Every structure is written in structure tokens, then in C-alpha cells.
Amino acid sequence: MTLGMGLVGPGFIAAHHLDAVRRLGNVEVIGIAGSSLESTKKRARELNAGRAYAGYRELLADPAVHVVHNTTPNHLHREVSLAALRAGKHVISDKPLAATMEESRELYEAARDANLAHVVTFNYRGYPLVQQARAMIAKGKIGKSVFVHGCYLQDWLTDERAYTWRLDPKLGGASSALGDIGSHWCDLAEHVTGARIVEVLADLHTVVAEREVPDTAAKAFAGKAKAPGKKRRITSEDVASVLLRFDNGARGCVTVGQVLPGHKNDLRLEVNGREGSIAWRQEQPNELWLGHHAKANTVLTRDPALMDPTARGYAHLPAGHPEAWADAFRNIIADAYAWIRRDARADAKPIALPTFADGYRNSLLVDAMLRSHAAGGVWQPVTDPLETKRTTRKRG
Fold it and tell me: Strand (E) positions, the chain?
């Protein structure tokens, strides 16, 4: 059966969703919906994306659409994803799952009860060597994990004339750097280690506290004012440092920033165990550093023949043929559609595939970090109201 996909929110990331779907070869692009019919028609022609719908509700009403890709700005995630689930459509949503923890919880519960596929695009899981690192840690290759650390550093907001809707709390949420890219790092750290962050201590800071707003402010990534424009005060963080405690006893830390010159998309994760270490860097994705104590360190270059069987399927080219961001994104989308074809059964979900449960989990982490900073930089537990409710019921 050929599945039909529809996309809501044809901005920057939409083209990559469409590219990934087309590479699968067995999914039909039915159409897209945007903010207005005129702009959507123009975008549909640019992307060769089929029909232009007058709005997302018209797209949801089309029986040819089986899967909805939600690539709208953060503040619309809840509205569109919830409507799609209620319409009986499978949903693939960009992160964050929603703008607030409460909205994320609502979506997670709705998805859990719908018996439909529900996916959040934490796409860095899709890299072959990320899955290799996960497999090695799970099989005890580095012993007990004791320290998990890294960073996600960018420079696209360095210029005070740069502005994006992500900096507006009403559109992007209360957090900027942590919610936008720190969320990716936290998901990656938990996925690779198999451990959960249970406590955080966060220090947030806004380096550029005032920005000029250009006429391209509606775009996902920064437009720059060509002439002096209206000034806007920025309240969300553009740099952050967070100490971490994991449920397996490991400690950790992560630094996040979007105003750091020279760092384009510098995501790094290192896990130190009692018997060895593993490190991976997104800008050098085809190399996995393996650290040792009593022998020489080594580098594992992405080679399907040398990889763990559970990770090998995420590498599609022979050794020496680099695979990168678009390939990792395609891997996540491929897993999503494979799950959909298995009727979204819980026991059929690919291990690497992030769901609304992971999206909700991530919102709990960011919420705890915001609480920690607001309290003056003190340790805060990562609490789940749903777990508390279940525990209370059991005791009663």
C-alpha cells in the first residue's frame, strides 16, 4: 500500500521532510497547508509538493492523507498535532513536541490512546555511529558510565540585528537555546546511554538582550535588519550551562549557546565509563572516538562491515563514502513509516525512533532547567506529573 503524506507548515524544514519521504520510494506526497492559500500555492510549486490546501483542516479532511508532518512554528504544534490525531492520522512532528510542558503532556496522552504512530524528529538519533555508540554502551563495552558531557554550540544569533520567531516566548516558548538545541543534546544523551537525567542545576544567560526586528522575523532562522528597525527586548536565554545527575549514578554537564562565533552546528557527546570512553561530534559524523586507559585511543570510521548489527542498517553506503545530516534525517523518517506499516504496534517500534513519549520527556527536562535557574541556580528534580498521579493511585 502506498501511504499518502500531507505537510502542515511549509517553512525551512519542510523541504527536508519532503526529501526524506521521497527517498523512501513508497510514499506519495499529497499536498501541503500553510498560513494562506496564496503563499501555500507558491510554496507547493517551489517544492513540487502536490496540492495546496486552504488550511490544515482541509488537509486533514482529505482521505488520501494518511500521515501528517507537522512542521509549524512551536506555538502551533499542539493545535495541529491534536487535530491530526483526532482525525485518525499518523503524526510526525518537529521538536519540541509542544510549546509548554502541559501541552506536551496533553499530546502524549492523546497519542498514547489513539493507536496511531506518533513521532518527534529528534533526528540526530538517525546517525549510524550514534546507534553504534548506543549499542556499544548497552553491551558494556565501556563499563559502567560515570560521566556524560558535551555541548551544542551555534553562532547564527550572534549579530544583534538577527531575529527569529524562536526568540518570542509567545511563538517559540519560554526557552530559546535550551528548548531549541539543548533539547536535541538531552535526547541524544539519554538515548545513547540508556540512562535518564533525574536532577539538573542550570545557569541561563541572555548575551544579546535587545535585537532589531527585520521584516523576515516570521522565518524559522534569523533574518537580519538591513536598516535600523524596531528594537525588541529578549527574555529567553542564548547561552546556558547545566549540571546533570543520571538515574544510574552518572554525573554530567552540557553547555548550549547560539551566539558563539565560529560554531555552526557543533553538537558533541562524550560518555566516559570505568573501562573506556566514547565520543561523537555531529560536524564529523563519520568518526567515533574510542578512549582507553592502558592502550592507544582509536577512531572507528563509519564502515557497515565493522558496525554492530543493530546499527548497521543506518549506514547505507560503503566505508569511505560519507553520510551526513540529510541521511540521518531520512533514517528517522524511514523508521517512522516502517512503524506505520506495522500498524504502529508498541512491540514493532524501531528502537531508534523517538515518539511523543520522548517529546514529553524532553519537555520535562527543559521545564526542570528553567525552574532551576529561576530558583537561583539550585538542583531541581525532573518530575513527571503523570508518574506522580499513577503512584498516588496505587497507594490509594
Answer: 3-8, 27-33, 51-53, 67-70, 90-93, 118-120, 145-153, 162-163, 197-205, 210-213, 223-224, 230-233, 239-246, 251-257, 266-273, 277-281, 287-291, 298-301, 380-381
